[in-house]
Amino acid sequence: MASLLEIDRLSVRFGAAEAVRSLSLHLDEGEVLGLVGESGSGKSVTALAVMQLLGPAAQTEGSIRFTSQNAGPVDLLQLRAEPMRRLRGREMAMIFQEPMTALNPVMPVGEQIAEAIRTHQPEKPRSQVREAVLEAMSAVALPDPARRAQDYPHQFSGGQRQRIMIAMAIANRPRLLIADEPTTALDVTVQKQILELLASLRERFGLAMLFISHDLAVVSQVSDRVAVMRHGLLLEEASRATLFSRPAHPYTRALLGAIPTMETDIHQPLATLERSHESEALPLREVETGHIARIS
């Protein structure tokens, strides 16, 4: 099966600082890839590179190939602004971490969703745009969409605002959805609801998803495969079942050991993350079929 998204030796620099170092990943149609790592590991920079939202300060190398439904395989790093704008929001969309800063506070939420639709489907008459807005709001289980479409972001709870962001992202039926820590700012109950919503939307619309998080427990609920990053490098990648049952890299084992469970001995300290950079000099090697890690 050809990959929907293929990142090949991507490097991103900001001046002398290298945020992502020769990263290679792939994502198939309908698959969810969890990208995990601590703050500063390069997860969000990778997502922004895919969406071409890094800005002129970033220097990028490598390639990011996306299989467009209309244009076929394209290298996103080589696309001009206008073709990229047509892809972004139509065939690929992104959900950001903090919905209150991502939404326009002085525009009704229905109009914000409508704007996302009109941008990519200008031929749609007003009545069909409104119908699509209400359908998107219903798809994310926002109550009474016909009335709430007139409300402003501050009139919604944090979880509802995240649902609005998801409605905007899926309004044009993209094939790829990038979720950048979409549950970090939410309490545990709402977090569970958002994860269940994303799972149902994936099933309903056949979405492929790049799910970014620092929380392995969250990633374990949604991902088919998991990739672990640190200091801009890919350290390990495997299926969810393999990574959680047989982690090969010391950093991955430390991340898993730092998660308390009902069986955790409260008299013992949780695992801490080693500071050693030695493994970063090691090449990636195949531990078993479909399981690679940067180990000797």
Automatic annotation (TrEMBL):
Membrane topology type: Peripheral membrane protein
- InterPro entries, from UniProt? AAA+_ATPase, ABC_Ni/Peptide_Import, ABC_transporter-like_ATP-bd, ABC_transporter-like_CS, Oligopep_ABC_C, P-loop_NTPase
Q: What are the record keywords, sorted? A: ATP-binding, Cell membrane, Membrane, Nucleotide-binding, Transport
* Coiled coil stretches, renumbered: none
Family stated for the protein in its record: Belongs to the ABC transporter superfamily.
What does the UniProt entry say about where the protein is found?
Answer: Cell inner membrane
Task: Pinpoint the ABC transporter domain residues.
Answer: 5-256
Q: Name one GO cellular component term.
A: plasma membrane
Gene3D superfamilies found in the cross-reference section = P-loop containing nucleotide triphosphate hydrolases
Organism (species): Silvibacterium dinghuense
Principal location class: membrane
Question: Which is a GO BP term held by this UniProt record?
Answer: peptide transport
- What's the superkingdom here? Bacteria
The molecular function terms in GO held by this entry are:
ATP binding; ATP hydrolysis activity
The protein's name is: ABC transporter ATP-binding protein
Q: Which PANTHER family match?
A: DIPEPTIDE TRANSPORT ATP-BINDING PROTEIN DPPD (PTHR43297:SF2), OLIGOPEPTIDE TRANSPORT ATP-BINDING PROTEIN APPD (PTHR43297)
